[in-house]
Amino acid sequence: MARRCFVAHPRVSCVTLATLPTPLEAGGKLQSGANLWVKRDDLTGLGVGGNKARKLEFLCAEAIDNDATCLVTVGAAQSNHCRMTAAAGARLNLPTHLVLSGEKPKNLEGNQMLSAMFGAHLHHTGLAASDWSNLELARAELTEKLIRDGQRPHSIPIGGSTAVGAIGYAVAFDEIISQCSLQNFVADAIVFTTSSGGTHAGLVAGLVRARANDPQKVLPKIIGIGVAKGVALNTNRVVELANETLTLLGERANATIADVIIDASYMGADYAIPTQAAADATTWAAHRGAWVLDPVYSAKGFSGLLGLDANGDFGVDSNIIFIHTGGLPSLFVMH
Ligand SMILES: Cc1ncc(COP(=O)(O)O)c(C=O)c1O
């Protein structure tokens, strides 16, 4: 099922899970006079869509190359990454185990309801949503148990943020740049929500690769809006992951700390704790373009874009791309 993906690198395997390219929509003017563009990665298709489809195309190819008999991954109770891994497992006929925070709810809602619908096994740990290190330990324990039971699990860390997963966003960077030239503009910045750092690292790897190929080309700033303390609000980690990704892509050029911008000032108290700015950004986006943002990820990311614009960070007539990374199912969770 895995095939070689020559878009990334001749040695990199990829399975088709996402509907690509996703649209790049014109979003009109921001308050400052900058032009807004929305990259619709909420429309990647797989299991109702989102950014993780791009990572899973490479992570699942790795699983198939390794002859895995099942997938294992981990996340918060309403993890989009877990739901999309469950969808990938269904598409590829690989039983999928999800290690989740929280207790088993009486009724499954949102992402958990969909994960169960895709046939995944849900392992509720009772851990807090932001207890990332113990959630990762629980994933390691489950992986070992599956090995003892004779399985060959492909075990994917939180958010799918390995160098292999990040290749998906190095490829997305190229996709965005070619859509910009088709639509006759040059992007000044790409803004998106960052949490486990794989989306960010992949975009930075794409940027560094493009710069190495054409040092004269004007390339956008990559701006991640952080939404979770203690995961990857760590610039050094994103640089490291981007450089591991570049190595997999056979690229000699390196990312540096100057390539990685993480703005954590729109997170509020911590992961999944609502902010007024995110609620306002949700209304703004819904009224402007019928873009549906979620309170945990995309609304905080978009509130960052609007906040940077209000602070005067973007020039008049500059072109600012927001990557809508998805998150729709958590809108339908009642508590
Ligand atoms: C909707 C949504 N947006 C953004 C992100 C952040 O992506 P990353 O974990 O690659 O930083 C996630 C991660 O789970 C997500 O579900």
Features:
39% helix; Rossmann fold; four-stranded parallel sheet; 2 domains; alpha/beta; binds pyridoxal-5'-phosphate; 16% strand; six-stranded mixed sheet; 335 residues
Return Rg in Å.
19 Å
β-sheet strand percentage: 15-25%
Mean pLDDT: 96
Largest sheet: 6 strands, mixed
Give the end-to-end Cα distance, rounded to a whole number of Å: 40 Å
SS-based class: alpha/beta
Bound molecules: pyridoxal-5'-phosphate
CA-based shape? globular
Question: Total number of β-strand segments?
Answer: 12
CATH topology group of the largest domain:
Rossmann fold
Instruction: Using the coordinates above, name the CATH class of the largest domain.
Output: Alpha Beta
In the CATH hierarchy, what is the architecture of the largest domain at level 2?
Answer: 3-Layer(aba) Sandwich
What does this molecule look like?
Helix 2 (80-92) links the parallel strand 5 and strand 6. This protein has helices at residues 52-65, 80-92, 110-117, 132-148, 163-182, 198-213, 235-248, 276-289, 298-310, and strands at 3-4, 13-14, 24-29, 35-39, 70-75, 96-100, 121-124, 153-155, 189-194, 221-226, 261-263, 319-323. It is of the alpha/beta class. The N and C termini lie far apart (40 Å). It is built from 9 helices and 12 strands. The structure holds pyridoxal-5'-phosphate (PLP). Residues 16-326 form the Tryptophan synthase beta chain-like PALP domain. GO terms for molecular function: D-cysteine desulfhydrase activity. Its cofactor is pyridoxal 5'-phosphate. Belongs to the ACC deaminase/D-cysteine desulfhydrase family.
